[in-house]
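Translate structure to sequence.
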């Protein structure tokens, strides 16, 4: 699962071969993108806080809650190429001030719980992204995302359902917690025998 994510991140987030800032505790899954992906791409990782950044990074992965902080810091604290946001719902209103200061930086909304090895979908924002909630995007290669009803049937567009994830990035379950694993990781009716869906 981790190798699949790192390969995908390295090939999709092309600024990984530059400078990144690891500004989170190592236990947070967001650090996989900020620490391990640049190292597999020949990049440089700076272990520092956003406030103490000296070299302008080419890429930062952060949460939308970091945007107000980034707008108050010097220009060199924000990335020169790519900003990946995840871990919280993103709304275009969150980005207005920061994007006005950094109009040429690519912004990506990443979605995925820890059980899907960091993020499993992403949406690359453009000037044409409509105001409002930012979509979570499309699934990565070798992963699937389904919106299903209680009987695990796909729901029609516009109908509320539960989001299920599947594919190579899925965790095996929860260590030492078989009851929780069987509740959240269910048989995948759309995949090969033995494959599972994760109930988000």
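Result:
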């Amino acid at each position: 699962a981790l190798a699949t994510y790192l390969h995908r991140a390295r090939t999709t987030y092309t600024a990984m071969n530059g400078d990144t800032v690891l500004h989170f505790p190592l236990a947070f899954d967001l650090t996989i993108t900020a620490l391990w992906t640049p190292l597999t791409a020949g990049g440089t990782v700076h272990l520092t806080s956003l406030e103490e950044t000296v070299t302008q990074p080419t890429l930062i992965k952060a949460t939308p809650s970091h945007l107000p902080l980034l707008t108050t810091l010097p220009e060199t604290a924000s990335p020169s190429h790519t900003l990946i946001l995840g871990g919280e719902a993103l709304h275009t209103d969150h980005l207005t001030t920061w994007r006005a200061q950094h109009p040429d930086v690519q912004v990506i909304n990443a979605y995925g719980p820890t059980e899907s090895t960091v993020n499993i979908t992403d949406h690359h924002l453009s000037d044409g992204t409509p105001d409002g909630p930012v979509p979570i995007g499309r699934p990565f290669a070798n992963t699937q995302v389904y919106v299903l009803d209680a009987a695990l049937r796909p729901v029609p567009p516009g109908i509320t359902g539960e989001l299920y994830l599947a594919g190579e990035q899925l965790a095996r379950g929860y260590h030492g917690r078989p009851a929780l694993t069987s509740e959240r990781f269910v048989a995948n009716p759309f995949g090969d025998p033995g494959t599972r869906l994760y109930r988000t």
